[in-house]
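Fold it.
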Amino acid sequence: MARHRVTLHLLPAYAPETKPDELVNSDLKRTLLPASRARNADQLADEVRRFFRRRQKQPHIVRGYFQGPHVRYITEMPGM
């Protein structure tokens, strides 16, 4: 039976820089909003879907969400 270790990281109550999903949101806003031509909610939803479809084909960018100094704790393996 393989043993795995779990490391507990206590995070402050509000620390968006420690959450990869906040990095994704920031990327979406930086990329989409300046170039957005959406005139209604449906068009905006279409643009957001296109953004995420592009990101699916860019794994190097997605990996980058987990390599920032404040989110690196997610991928670090203690003792290895």
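Helices lie at 20-32, 41-56, 59-64.
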